């Protein structure tokens, strides 16, 4: 019975129902290559969602991570081209550290000046994007210039299947990276002091402070990790699409926040789980992809995502108020 | 002794206004020094009075939402949707005479539709926030997406071009030698200032923002007041949409996307407390003027739009830091 009452179970149920529905409307949904490509689309949004989950649990919000992701990605690739360096591990590390440094700025403003995270992250987002496009450059780096090592790394498959007509398709190994990061986040949130302090901060900052949690450490940890995950995901994304576009990820913050809230994280802070977030990400990606399969005009995508945000937040608000009452 | 106290309280109360004025004069002086021949031309200031009202209206709307500790991230979406719905109506009703010569009744109907859009959008926001208890950030983030999405669905992406002449007058005409949108802004700003400082609604909003629990125990109808404030925000956003579509003679789903950040920045810069309870129309007006001078100065100095975005972001963070520094004793 306890299993039935968990919000993850409910989300999984809705997800299965939606899959059956979409599959009935268009059986092509169940084809293995569609499922593989769905999982592939989960990777980048999913990694970013882990960071946003952490921020939402702490009672904050972050709209700057897409800007951080695109800046880390573009600067790293520009740097690789300038140095003539062709590798995987060091660039990913560099992008992650860049994201971490950006995140530290968020953390500094949120902690030091007690400012509403939304306003801080709006500011840092505009600064980072403005700097990138105004100073670094606006031109795309196409496949002919992209570092080959990154592309080769990102096209690794876990399994690959050959179709009857000779074309092959596979499940990208990037899914494993996503799963690994999700597992790490789960362990941190569940079993470490810093993870628990994020929940405490989101539950009640004053109570957390009096209970002896170090809020400065917690806030910096939260925003640094969110930035680092965004930076990592940004570079991985450019490897997966063989392109570095300095105008990428515009409006992505809404998709990711929608996915995390859909996954059962509370909009008031203090609640949320990695498993729920992964289900929420899958749901969002699936709905967006299926709009195309179901031949819904793509102009409706924004409306659908917006409605999902409203519905998911309304449900979350209703659930949490009932619990509080 | 007594007069001294009065002067001191006056300075304290208007401390922020005085600072803003000093900042505006400073910006003016620096820009004049950097490019005297281009910045000081009459044309420059005239063009500012045409662009200023859109941003000013959106910033006042943002300030009203912030009075109760909320925020409205859907203002730009509402503004665009209002302009587009009016544009769609004009295109549907345009007879053989063409859109430009549409009758005064058609234009009035368009105005009603645009303002109605703002009212409905604001009501939706207000109900989501008060009835369903969604936090304002997420509620308006979602509805803003829906409004922009509907605008894309209606237009299919490209801009709706061509508005009646009478409509365009609201955006780029002249009344007594002054820009129509500027006159419109002055009237609306005075009206809002009156509502906020002299009516029950305004006082209620300030009290709710200062201390929600105390306001509740004092018997204030919190839900209704917050709902009204978001309705007002929505209507102001749609007026901005009317002015914008009148000035550019077009309406598009992604016009003015950078206005969102600027509206938040101006609201905070103009002395509004994002946590609620404090904010004045006068502060907003001076802050908009300061930023418009700054932005026109940068444009004259040939800064790219991206760099200006960077500067807005940096400015916002700087203002936060300064405000925190000023309030550190509390």
UniProtKB/TrEMBL annotation, chain A:
Keyword Transport: yes
Pfam family, one: BPD_transp_2
Transmembrane segments: 9-29, 63-83, 89-111, 118-141, 169-189, 219-243, 249-268, 275-294, 300-318
Assigned keywords, A-Z: Cell inner membrane, Cell membrane, Membrane, Transmembrane, Transmembrane helix, Transport
CDD domains: TM_PBP1_transp_AraH_like
Membrane-topology descriptor: Multi-pass membrane protein
Chief location of this protein within or outside the cell: membrane
Cell compartments where the protein resides: Cell membrane
Keyword Membrane attached: yes
Entries under InterPro entries matching the protein: ABC_transp_permease
This protein's name: ABC transporter permease
Organism: Azospirillum endophyticum
Lineage, broadest ranks: Bacteria, Pseudomonadati, Pseudomonadota, Alphaproteobacteria, Rhodospirillales
From TrEMBL, chain B:
Domain of life of the organism encoding this protein: Bacteria
Key word Membrane present: yes
InterPro entries noted in UniProt: ABC_transp_permease
Keywords in alphabetical order: Cell inner membrane, Cell membrane, Membrane, Transmembrane, Transmembrane helix, Transport
Pfam families found in the cross-reference section: BPD_transp_2 (PF02653)
UniProt KW Transmembrane helix keyword: yes
Subcellular location: Cell membrane
PANTHER family for this protein: ABC TRANSPORTER PERMEASE PROTEIN YPHD-RELATED, ABC TRANSPORTER PERMEASE PROTEIN YPHD-RELATED-RELATED
Protein name according to UniProt: ABC transporter permease
